[in-house]
Amino acid sequence: MNNENWQWWQYFLVIAKQGSLSKASEFLGISQPTLSRQLQAMEKKYEQILFDRSTQGLSLTEFGRKLLDECEDMQTSADRLQRLVAGHTHTLSGRVRLSVNELIAFYNLPKIIPLFMEKYPDVSVEIEVSNLATNIDKRDADVAIRMFQPTQMDLVCRHLFDIPLGFYASKKYLEENGTPKNTVDLLNHKIIGYDRSLILEEGSKNIGLNVKNENFNLRTDFAPLHIALASNDGGITVMYKHLSEVSDLVEIDLDVVIPPQPLYLVCHRDVQHNKRIRALMDHLAEFLPKVCT
To answer: If you average pLDDT over each of 63-72, 148-157, 251-260, 271-280, which comes out highest?
Structure first.
């Protein structure tokens, strides 16, 4: 299969997953007219229509559906080839991509990543900030800082420590609204909630509460904004205890203890011996406990 054919199949797979040329072209980083021409050339060469066109977008034809599984298998094999090649790279240069959640990225990484860059000046670090788990199989990240234990068999994970959590509010907020003594009091206060993320809904079950996102009048999925809002007397938030030092918030002593959040370093087993990936993981393992606990 020549390079043009393989690229065509990559385009086919992305279009099938995205459901429109505009979304697929944005995902691929190419113009929509270019992608449209490539799709037309592909259909002309193979003398088959792969997608039905409508005002709602593109949907696979019966023939296109027959090709989808094989195409996905090809992509999986290509992803594994890339991981295997990366896993046998023994130089301390090149790119390494790190995935991390918003709070660790915003408050803790700036204290330790410059030290890594100074030690390894030929390594470039790309940081993906998301509270969602990135796809390590597809190399969306080489290394991930995860706040839960991964279960996939092909991932290598290292548990570093647990991060204590607590309820926090500003001193002014508590003076004006009183300090809750238990979870019943807590629910009568302004709690800064999440919008689409279910982290607070699921976490509340661990302390015997049954709350929904819609119960909170102030909601955002951007975790650093929770702390900023609480610091400006906007209500009560749940956060990592070590961040109270930089936020000047007061911990609220309730009749429950929030289970701590585990922190894991994760990479794919195919790249665990890559020298630059190993160097970053070792650096994080050394310095994260110093800034997060």
So the answer is: 251-260
- For 197-229, the pLDDT digits (tens) are 999 988 888 888 888 999 899 999 999 999 999
Domain ranges of the chain: 3-87, 94-162+261-292, 165-252
pTM, two decimals, is: 0.68
Q: Are 79 and 62 in contact (CB under 8 A)?
A: no
Helices 21-28, 3-18: axis angle to 10 degrees equals 120
Architecture category of domain 94-162+261-292 in CATH = 3-Layer(aba) Sandwich (3.40)
Residues in Cβ contact with 7 at an 8 Å cutoff, skipping those fewer than 6 apart? 38
